[in-house]
Amino acid sequence: MIDVAIELIAERGVRDFSVAEASRRLGVAPSAPYAHFSDRDELLAAVTVRAYQSLFGEMQPAIEGITDPGERLAAMASAFVRFAATNRALFSVLYESGVDKADHPEIESAEQPLARAILGAVRALTPGSDLQSDNLATAVEATARGFALLLLDGDFGSGAGAIERAADQTARATKALIDGRHMLAGPTGEN
Amino acid sequence: MIDVAIELIAERGVRDFSVAEASRRLGVAPSAPYAHFSDRDELLAAVTVRAYQSLFGEMQPAIEGITDPGERLAAMASAFVRFAATNRALFSVLYESGVDKADHPEIESAEQPLARAILGAVRALTPGSDLQSDNLATAVEATARGFALLLLDGDFGSGAGAIERAADQTARATKALIDGRHMLAGPTGEN
DNA sequence: GTCTATACCCGGATAGAC
DNA sequence: GTCTATCCGGGTATAGAC
Predict the structure, then answer these.
(1) Rounded distance, CA B190 to CA A61, Å?
(2) What is the pLDDT of residues A81-129, one digit of tens each?
(3) Strand residue runs (E) in chain A
(4) Whole-number distance in Å between B143 CA and C14 C1'
(5) CA of B82: how far to CAs of A102, B65, B166, in Å?
(6) pLDDT confidence band for B68 (50 / 70 / 90)
(7) Cα-Cα-Cα-Cα dihedral of B153, B159, B161, B162, to 10°?
(8) What is the pLDDT of residues B111-158, one digit of tens each?
(9) Closest CA to A94 of A104, A84, A102, A106
(10) For residues A23 and A33, is the Cβ–Cβ distance under 8 A?
(11) Which residue gives the smallest C-alpha to C1' distance to C14?
C-alpha cells in the first residue's frame, strides 16, 4: 500500500494524492485501506516516516569516512539535494503533505536520527556556542532546502547534469556558510 | 475578485483554493468568475502577477539608499523573508500554485523587475565572471527561500520576534555567502 | 481483511435566459 | 455581466455482509 502511495504521489503530488486512486491501482475496494489506516492522514504519516528513514539511509553512506566536520556537513547538504531529486515523492511528503506532525508522534521520532547527525557536525564546528551552532544548522538547512527546490523547479536545467550541478553548488554554498559562521551570531541585537 | 481569492488562499492554502468558494464569499453565482477568467488557472495567474508586483514593491523601499552591493543583496534577502511572513498567501502562490508559467507569459514579465534587481547587485559583487554571478544569485535565492520556509514552518518560534530573527539570520547568511563567493566557482569539474 | 453499497461532501465548467 | 440550472467528475468515510 505504502509503495503504491509513493508511486502515486510521484505522479500527481501529495496534495492530489487520494486513497481512492491508490485503492484502484491496487485492485482493491476503496474502503480496504481504511482497515489499516484510520484515515488519509495516517497513511500519509506512514509515508512520511518512511521518507525520513530513506533520507537518513541515503545520507549515511554519503558521509561515512569523512572526518572533517565541515566536509561532513557539506556532504550532508549535497546528499539532501540529491535525495530530493531522486525521490521527489518522498521529498515532497516531508514538506507538503499538510499533515500535522503534532498529531503523529511517529514522525517526530523518525526525524531524530537526522537531526542528531546534523547537530553533531555543527557542534564540532562551533564548539562552545550553542547559539552559533543553532544558527549554522538553520542556515545550512535553509540553503539545502532552497537548492533542492530550485533543482526541482528546473532552475539547474532538466538535463542529466542538473542534479550534480545542484549538489555541487550546495556543497560549495555550505562551505561558504561554514567559513563565515562567525558572522551568524554577534553584535546588533544579540540574537 | 482577486482580493477575495488572496484572502481565501491565506486561509486554506493555494491547493485548496476553489473558485466556487470565492464566488460564495463574493455573493455571486459560481459561474460568474468564468466571465472574467477562462478557468481557475487564469485566475491564479492573475494573483501570481500581483504577488510579484507586491514583492517587488516591498523590496524597493527596503533597499533604497543602500549603495554597498553586498548590503543591498542582504537587504533584498531579508525583505524577501519578511514578505513571505507578512503575505503568506502571495508567497505561497509564487511557488505552490501549480500553475505552469509557460502557459501564462504575464507571470514571466511580472517577475522581471525582481530578477533585474538581483542581477544588478550580484554583478557588482562578481565583476567579470558571469558564472560566478549566476552561482551567487542562485545561492542567495536558495538561502532566502529556505529561510522563508523555515520561518513559515515555525522553526523560528511563533512569537512576535520570529520574523525579525529570521530576517536577521537571512541577512547574515547572505553576507557569509558573499564573503565566500569565490568558492562558488572554480576547480573540480569547472561548473 | 476484504468486499459491495451507499451517504455525503466537494469541485470545475458549460448552456442559455435575462 | 450576472443569473439559474445542470452535467460531469472526484473524494472521504461508514455500514454490514462474507
Answers:
(1) 25
(2) 999 999 999 999 999 999 999 999 999 999 999 999 999 999 999 999 9
(3) none
(4) 45
(5) 26, 19, 8
(6) very high
(7) 0
(8) 999 999 999 999 999 999 999 999 999 999 999 999 999 999 999 999
(9) A84
(10) yes
(11) B31
